[in-house]
Design goal:
disordered C terminus; globular; mainly alpha; 0% strand
């Protein structure tokens, strides 16, 4: 499988997560109950992460069309991916803290927030400076998969947050 096919496959999966998660929330929501802050935070974060994943599945190809070599294209894409991911990460930390949801995160959520996000962002940042050499493409693909994993994790939480009767658990 080529890098192009791999990235296009990831983009399709991310779009599917975004669509299905939105459908799950909309179709199974009880209109008489307000949507909780945690459910809203998950949905917004998952939609943002899905869009970021989709966007950065296509970004590496743009510098190549401008004539840059593959390695410089991956490095430039890694730097852009890092900056956008960092903005998303800091924004979500601030939103979770301001909504009072941060203290209610499960252990697996905390693992994602404090381990998965920072490691993937560090790998992208170091890759943009050329630390990974010719392996930068593989590191970029791995970080894209990490973002896809985070989307899938939030999708499963959205589904789990709904009980059998179609109302949201408290």
């Amino acid at each position: 499988m080529s890098e192009t096919e791999f990235l296009f496959g990831i983009a399709q999966i991310a779009a599917t997560f975004a669509g299905f998660s939105t459908l799950v929330v909309v179709l199974r929501q009880d209109p008489r109950r307000a949507r909780g802050a945690l459910v809203t935070a998950r949905l917004v974060s998952m939609l943002q992460q899905s869009l970021i994943t989709i966007l950065f599945c296509f970004v590496p190809f743009l510098p190549r069309y401008a004539g840059l070599s593959a390695i410089y294209s991956w490095r430039l894409s890694s730097g852009l991916f890092f900056v956008v991911w960092l903005i998303h990460y800091v924004h979500n930390l601030y939103r979770l803290r301001s909504q009072g949801v941060f203290t209610h995160l499960s252990r697996s959520n905390k693992w994602n927030v404090f381990v998965v996000h920072p490691i993937a962002m560090a790998a992208l940042a170091l890759g943009s400076f050329g630390l990974w050499g010719s392996s930068i493409g593989m590191v970029y693909l791995s970080c894209t998969l990490a973002m896809l994993y985070l989307c899938g994790f939030l999708f499963l939480q959205q589904v789990r947050a709904l009980d059998v009767n179609g109302t949201q658990e408290s």
